[in-house]
Amino acid sequence: MKRGMRPATPGLPQGGPGVRVLALALLAGCGGPPPTRITGAFVSGLGERQSAAWWDREVATMKAAGLDTVILQHATYGDPGQALWTPNDLGLPAPSGNLVGDLLGAAERAGGLAVIVGLGYRTNWNFTGGHTQAQYRDLAAFNVRVAEDLWRRFGRSSAFAGWYLPQEPDSQRSWEPVSAAPGTPLGRLLRGYYLPVMARLKELAPGRPIVISPFFGWNAMPPIVFRKWYTLLLNSCPVDILAMQDGIGVFHASLGPPGPGEAPCGDALVYLAAMRDACRVAGKSFWLDLEAFREKEDGDLIAATPEALRLGTRRYPGLGDQLRREAPVIRANGPWGNKILAYEWSYLRSTKNQGSR
Description:
By secondary structure, this protein is of the alpha/beta class. Helix content is 33%, strand content 17%.
């Protein structure tokens, strides 16, 4: 232990204040009953410039809703696109101003809100694993630069609690076989992107967790293959938390097997259980990324409602039933606890949708 450092609190991951804020918030979820409340949310869709005072009000609303964790989905968007902080060493325009700094500052002033910061999202990302090794390496080099600049400018913030990689694998059969050998889809992802980026994140901030949030779609791997594939991924890279999207809001999944005449969605409860088992085997934490929106047939998104809702030919469960049926599945008891997040804060913010109450 370096001279002048305080001993870590027993049972908590080591790291700075942001790590301890997040770890304290999660202790109740380690080894205890499954969580029953939404205590975290993604924030996204941040194209408009907002003031620091606006973020102070928004963070106060988040805390009043019972949130202790926020994941900023991405710090850049586009190819190479725009940045959400300024100045930045990437030479990217930042029409939203210093949004990253304003959010972290508001979280610091409010206290008790941990912010997990997303890296850069390039819109040429291939969800189905079709990138070449060279394309992955290019993306990795870009996001290492993003992480280094973010850490240099904001790493001292007590609210900076971890990292989020916004690149989402879709778990389709195109990701098979279950192998990390060179040349396989998983092998290319690990060697070209995940391992170099995650290694640098651990060098920059050894105590901060790394989060990923995959999903499954219409052509998903069968649940048994899905579990094996993610067990291999989790055992092969230093990711700490897997926050799986439940697929309800985008109509990729149903709560239980689809009924007669219903669209052939996947069973969210089966896939969530498969991911929970993968996290248990690999010793990682499993968080639920609960979709608090509903996608209409024309692609528009609206906030979920407490009760079941029919949109054209699509019948969605109510947010309350979604939370009640999914929460018992997710318990994996990893080092960073069990937690329910909502995607996305703007939908959860509606007074009708305080699933955390």
